[in-house]
Amino acid sequence: MKAVILAGGRGSRLSEETQTKPKPLVEASGQPLIWHIMQNYALYGVNEFIVLAGYKGQYIREYFANFWIRQSDITFDLTTPDLTIHKIRGLPWKVSVIDTGIETNTGGRIKKLEELISEDFLLTYGDGVSDVSIDDLIATHKQKNNIVTLTAVQPPARFGALHLQENQVVAFQEKPVGDGAWINGGFFMLSPKIFSYLDKENPIFETDVLPVVAQDGKLGVHKHFGFWQPVDTIRDLQKLEVAIQSGVLPWI
Predict the structure, then answer these.
(1) Residue 66 main-chain phi, psi, to 5 deg
(2) Can you tell me the mean pLDDT for 9-35?
């Protein structure tokens, strides 16, 4: 099964990093976000990826083109073009990088897969790291026979909470889970029937497509209660760094 990664956006809210690289190549603990995302898929045996690139997509191609050399022990003889490879720490992944255009919206990027994919496929964004169970997502999708199954998460509240008793503060709770609302966590499984919903010119997947699929009764949900960290700002990146250092991610 293929996993598709949306990696074409400008990442303007993380401009401190994305002025020189696309957001999926922003590093957390020495590895780019896209590496962390792919590692989670690989835990479940998914090792074929399609990266839908746009903004600074050439950097993504160069990253994968040089991936093996980054992971190897090599001796360079600087008097000649020769090199000696001692050990390669490669990964059994196959990665296709597709140029989908700089100004293309998310639905328009997915539409460009129509000639490449004829079976169910996984989809996520290139800036959200999670330990979501891919096996459970796949099982939920197949059980319900939906066109789209999305992963729902409950983000933490923006601020800490006060526990009050008779006009006295008796305890603090640091950023509890939100008020019970579920949001789109960005990990999907899709049927190829999704392409029939992408007939609008350059559609936005989240606002032009998903509501229509929901109206047709074909949008399922897989609830995820584990780790989930989108990276939209420097503060988000710092949170991810802390989580990695704490050992919460199973591939670290």
Answers:
(1) -100, 10
(2) 95
